[in-house]
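USER:
Try writing one entry.

ASSISTANT:
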Amino acid sequence: MKMTRRSFVGTVGLGSAAGLLASAGLTSKKANAASSYEAEAVYDGGIMQLNQNESARGPGPKTMEAIRSHVTRRVGRGYAPDHVNELRATLADGYGVTTDNVILSTGSGPLLVGAARAFCSESKALVTTGPTYTTAEQTARLIGAPIRSIQVDSSTMGVNLEGSAEAAVGAGLVYFCNPNNPTGTVHSPEAVESFIRRVQRESPNTKMLIDEAYINYAADDAMQTALPLAMEFENVFITRSFSKAHGMAGLRVGYALGQKATLDAVSSAWGMGDVNMLSAIAAITAFNDKEHIEWERQENTEIRAFVVAAFNDMGYEIPNSHTNHIFVNLGKPAKGFRDACLENKILVGRDFPPFEQTHCRISMGSREEMQKAVEVFRKVLA
């Protein structure tokens, strides 16, 4: 049976629909204004994929239509792809910067690799978080750069900004994922600004990469983009991706925003790949479709609240998440839980040291997927 908002809320078993919406930080007015766009449960090789933080709903309807309408013979003339320069201009206009402040990449991965290669070396360390997204760390290790990994706060699972600022002195690059993957935690605009200003004051040659891949899922009052600080400080830049809330992981579009000299160094250190014309028109459409992104955020918020409530009901703690995944404290190794879920055709997240003995990351699927997944979670944890 296809899950609707009404039937989904009815499965919670923790009160009325109004109670769920309140716990998700949504008003009924916002919920009623949301799109009717729904997603069926999707299985890959018979396995429900709750491990990669992709959007269960994929691109919005307008983006899908834009892709379909541009599948013409013109794609055969794609060595100089249409719409790529238009995408760069769209992003620049949308953020109030110039095209010199924007670089495109095939997903955000090349940006992180390029940053580590541009600014880290055997004498210039990478400062990162444990746990966080690891592409920059993997690259630093590959090129022989020292790695200063600062463990998250054990009580809040938030990034340790104090420890990171201390470690940043003399470092080549600070990698700061906000909201953080896998913990889902965010830092306020005031905390981020204080952190960036401190590092730039105490270590003025250190570059700072602020990874905002999950920002579209964060509550408005929880965080803000660090773009104004990137425009103030040459050493600061941010990365974004169309792979998360925009639902375009398979189309591979990422971008960085910052000052030209810094972005040039990143793109010179590693190939950014070539965004193709269908990905470009999809990204333009998705970026301009603000209504769908707001709906996606509300949808994810409600689904996440349902799953968190289920784990809380079973006695498990979860850090306050502002992403499309949660980091559950199981009090036992993630591998055992992961193996048990896989026996039930559900794949959850990999190990995230140093918390692989206690925590597991679970991505949020569609309403229908997560209703089925919660039934499995209750069974394997019983």
About this structure: Residues 63-288 form a domain with the Aspartate Aminotransferase; domain 2 fold (CATH 3.40.640.10).
